Amino acid sequence: MACLLTLGQESQFSQYFASSTITNAAFVGVIPNLSFNTNYRSNWTKNSDEFSEIMQGTFTYPFKRVTSRDFQIGGAGLTFFRERRGFGGLYTTQKVLFTGAYRMRLSQIYHQYIVFGLQGGFVQTALDGNQLRWGSQFNRFLASAGGFDGSRTGENLSQNKHGYPVFNFGIVYSTFDNENTYIRDRSVVLGLGIDNLNRPDVSLDGSVASHKPRTYRLFGTAKFPMNPRVFIHPSAYILYQGGSDQVNLGTYFSTLASSVRSQTAVVLQVGYWYRTHDGHIIMAGTQVDNIRLGISYDTNKQAFGAEDLGKDTPSFEISLTYNLDLANPLRSVPSPIL
Length: 338
Description:
The protein is an all-beta fold. The chain has a single domain, classed as monomeric porin ompg (Porin). It contains 1 helix and 14 strands, in the order αββββββββββββββ. Strands 1-2-3-4-5-6-7-8-9-10-11-12-13-14 form a 14-stranded antiparallel barrel. Strand 11 (266-275) and strand 12 (279-288) form a beta hairpin.
């Protein structure tokens, strides 16, 4: 017996704001530098049903209008995404996403902006039948291998692939106290994202239509000084999809660790997130001039929009951001997003 219809729920990154274009398409109009960022997350349990591995890489290019000074009017981004799930990574998802954003100033006196972003791309999913184990491969004399005998022939199930287009939308509102990012002390960023606008058919064999529901993402984050060198960033991130919701509440702290006279700027950041009725996320990061590195640990118990996993499936995640515009270094004290 073979199952030709499978339903899956994509995993998500723990460092929500480090994977900015995955969180909200409008972020490419907020990031002020030509940059590259990447995330990798895994629970390191490849030979289990709970295995999950995701990675993404994004190039971001800002559009600026140059008069007496540079003024950002939008941006563009190119994102590559890959996910492997299930025993041995038998279910894979790959994406290529193109993103464009337009930034509009709301006030000539205050620093208030609204950014609109539209994202489109192509997704390919696949189910690798070679990774499945069948009853005909059971051998009672191989207890150490759980009874699995790889020398025995299993069922003949080819690799099912399915491709479809996807479109996402995002809007971001931002306000801050100073245009100069080196002395900016206070900021507020709010955003709404909607994924799967076209509700694509994600069934592998096409015999039974299975339209992916829209995903709504609402977030907010702020930056306030606790003293001249330490900043707090209270944040929230809410998701809703097909009757399932998820609420994430978190706080970051950042500080300029290097001397103000130092030729190398060093920023340290620590943070904590609580995913209501689910798990905890602890993260730490550092920035040295144009390179930013983050690491996090997620106690994750559930897959958003899917059934309870039944046990803890902790995972680790690493993020890296590199500013390619060396003439305009990254901010001395970044928010969780920038």
